[in-house]
Amino acid sequence: MSESQKSIPNQRWRLHGKDGVDALHLEQDSFVPKLGEHEVLLEIQAVSLNYRDIAMISGQYPMASIDPLVPVSDAAGIVKAVGPKVTRFKPGDDALPIFTQSALFGDVQDKDRATGLGGLIDGVLQKVAVFDEQSLVHMPSNCDHQQGATLPCAAVTAWNALFGLEGKRLAPAQWVLTQGTGGVSLFAVQFAKAAGARVVATTSSDEKANLLKTLGADHVINYKKDESWGETARMFTGGIGFHHVVDVGGNGTLGQAMKAVRRHGVVSVIGFLGNGQQPGPSVLDALMRGCIIRGIAVGSRDMLEAVVDLVEAQDIKPVIAETVFKFEEVKEAYKYMAKQGHTGKVVIQVA
User: Is 126 helix (H, G, I), strand (E, B) or coil?
Assistant: First the structure.
């Protein structure tokens, strides 16, 4: 009997409602995969959390999601079985599911949003899952599963911000401004330096500043000591401003981001970490700056493949938070991330 015909035990965490970590429940069952012609059975080894996951359990996520839901979008696993017409993978391969399952090339389209893992379809916080072969990519050869699990959302988002806009792709010697030490921001520093750019990073402590410098940041600003950090950062460029600003704070940081960007530069708006009720920049601010303000919705399969190529070519090592959690400790992992005292990606070891 083939692997795809055997009954397979599975454990998954499922979110019922929006009542915080208590809405997460560990469930166990078994199923027969019955793989389609182009489907792949993936044994998940590790997953990583994003701020989206924290927002979702408390009802603060602004996008639609199903209920109940297997949460989390980012994973790395081992291929256990493949359908009869699968050509991209074989059993034993290490693979990463893409964030938006139907977005294979170019920009993510509106129609693709319905296929975002851990949103409108079940995610990866489970032991095994079935994917179409087209929605998987090979894991970088220089990464283990914990490192690989950090790539599908945060790394792709950072790559898209810096290289995803035709005509505005980051080039050597250009200037990049990043904010904080979350997953997207750290990948942005690493990718920008790999591309030969100059990086100014902001953070809230000397310890985090040391990490940013270790990753290659040319200058670091403590935004808690300098509320005008955008204007201060601009001075490092000779007053001309930044070619790329990677903004993760939303309304709370966008004003300073726009004071830092150069004319015709790009401000990539990544998330909503800041208070959404705070007033943001005005239309006049955008007109006066003459910049591009671009919302980033992760990216497509070809972008994750570009990330894999870059990570391998430059031997980039994703930064993982000091504490790695077990599969049974999912609630603790969520609480740990919600405190926002960590640096790097919060990872859960599944197998």
Answer: strand
> CATH second-level architecture of 3-149+320-349?
Alpha-Beta Complex (3.90)
CA-to-CA distance for 189 and 172, rounded, in angstroms? 13
Instruction: Note the pLDDT tens digit of each residue in 13-57.
Output: 999 999 999 999 999 988 777 899 999 999 999 999 999 999 999
- Cα gap 257→1, rounded to integer Å: 59
Q: Which two tokens stand for residue 206?
A: 């000397």
pLDDT, tens digit (0-9, with 9 covering 90-100), for 64-117? 899 999 999 999 999 999 999 999 999 999 999 999 999 999 999 999 999 999
Q: With 0-12 CB in 10 A as exposed, 13-18 as middle and 19+ as buried, what is 98? A: buried
Residue whose entry in the numeric block shows the structure tokens 């190529």: 309
Query: What is the CB neighbour count within 10 angstroms for residue 58?
Result: 14
In 3D space, the residue among 271, 267, 231, 265 whose CA is nearest the CA of residue 251 turns out to be 271
Q: What is the DSSP letter of 193?
A: H
**Model's pTM, two decimal places?**
0.94
Class of domain 156-295: alpha beta
